[in-house]
Every structure is written in C-alpha cells, then in structure tokens.
Amino acid sequence: MTEPFSYQSFSVDVSNHIAHVQFKRPDALNTMNKAFWLELPRCMQDIEANTDARVIVISSTGKHFSAGMDLGVFTDSKAVPMGGDPGRMAENLRRVVLQLQDTLSSLEKVRLPVLAAVHGGCIGGALDLVCAADSRYCTADAYFTIKETELGMTADVGTLQRLPKLIPEGVVRELAYTGRKFGADEAHRLGFVNTVYDNHETMLEGVMEIAARIAANSPLAVTGCKEMINYSRDHSVEDSLKYMATWQAGMFRPNDMMKTFQAKGQKQPPEYDDLFPVKDLFSQ
Q: Are 133 and 194 in contact (CB under 8 A)?
C-alpha cells in the first residue's frame, strides 16, 4: 500500500503495517505553514481510519528536519486579526494557540506509536512536535532548540509542558531561558533521544527496524501500552493503577496470547488481527 493520501506538507507511504510520514518541503526548510497545521491531525486520523498501519514513523527531507513555525501563520489577518477590541483579539489568539496545540496533540491521541526520526535542525515548533512523539531518534548532526525565546516570545504549543516530563527540569529551564542549541550527544545523554545514528540513511533503517518489531506485536497490547504510559505521565500512581485495572478488565482477552503461544510452538511469527478502524460516526 503506497501513498494512500495526498497532502501539501508531507508524503505518506504505508507498507508492512508501518506508515511513513515524511515532510516534503525541503526548499522551505520544512517550515510548519498553515497547510501543515491543518493537515497533520487529518493525516493521523486518515492513517488510523483507512490503513492497516500499526506504527507511524515521522521523518523529513532536505537539510533540516524542520525550521519550525512559519511566521506567516501568525501574520494571516484572517486567522489572527491585528486590530479591533483588545479583549476580542486576545480571545481569538488564545483560540488559535489552542488549535495549534491540538494539532501536535494528535500524535499523542492517535492509538498508534509515533516514532520521530530527526536530522539537521529541529527548531522551535518542530521541537514541540517531536516532544509529542512516543520515541525520538536522530542523526549525529541533529540539533534541537527552543527558538521562540530568542524571537521574543514564549514557546506555546507543547515543549514547555512535555519536555520536563522527558528530561530534567533544570535542564529544560536552561534551554528555555537561553534558547541555546543542544546537539545529538547531549540529547542522547539526557534521554531525549533513544539512539544517535551516523547519517540519515542508517537512521531510517534503524528506526524502520524498531517500527517493524512494534508492528509484529499485538496491536491491542501496544495501544494499551501507549494509553497507560500517557495516562500515568499525567496522573498519580494510584489513579494510574486503578485505570490499568479497569482497562485490563475491559480490554484483555486471551485470543492474542493464544495466538502467541501457538506461533511459538510452531516456530512461526504470530499473526494478529488489526484493531477496528477509528471512523467518524457521522461520515458517509
């Protein structure tokens, strides 16, 4: 299955239960323009509803992973009016920021694990994006920066909320206050990225191998892992344990375990049923 959907900002290839989403505007440094913000959540929904993918890999093309937010998003007078009543302008801007936040939160809301493969610069809004992924991998030349501070604003679409859950808070504060770059080695030492690869080609090979191992497992077990880890991040241990018990009581069935044991006995890889697709109840 190849290129099931068409987007301005990225290409999508689905094969062997892996959806590869690749940014495709290298001449514009893969900046996150208006189309990007509109398309990303739709892309996640399309993959979940209309493909057999069990894991999503996000990578990029050109010199940099992404130079971050296209400032044209905020200079669009239709989206962000520059005149009128201050209270109404503020309410509108708040709503725009919430919509941008929801776009990146789509990586967390999708049932499938999302693996980010980063090369070159991952700047500003692009860092917000990869913070919302399940796992991150990068090339030796990759670097990350909370660029918004240097531009005179506070990062507002996820980095300051998610990054302190991923690396020590004191480091996050330094990175946010200074806006300095941190490279692949530092990102790996801090645990922000899982693995550093020599180049883009070996990174994609490595990440695709990891994705294949994920896709080979029970989709129900994997989505349960994602649901529980995300929930535990934002709740107490006690609440998370109770939710785990409720999930297990409702979702656990022995079917996939039996398939696993049978496959091991036959020395074959198990074959699991896909999850039911997520559909809009009101779509035709």
A: no
Residues making up the chain, counted from first to last: 284
pTM over 0.90: yes
Residues of the chain above pLDDT 90, percent: 78
3-class secondary structure, 114: strand
The CA distance from 175 to 104, in Å, is 21
Count of Cβ atoms closer than 10 Å to residue 252 Cβ: 13
- Mean pLDDT calculated for residue range 100-123: 97
Q: What is the pLDDT of residues 231-249, one digit of tens each?
A: 999 999 999 999 999 999 9
CB 142 within 8 A of CB 183: yes
Domains within the chain, CATH numbers bracketed: 10-215 (3.90.226.10), 219-266 (1.10.12.10)
Residue 272 CB contacts under 8 Å (≥ 6 apart), including other chains: 217, 218, 219, 220, 256, 259
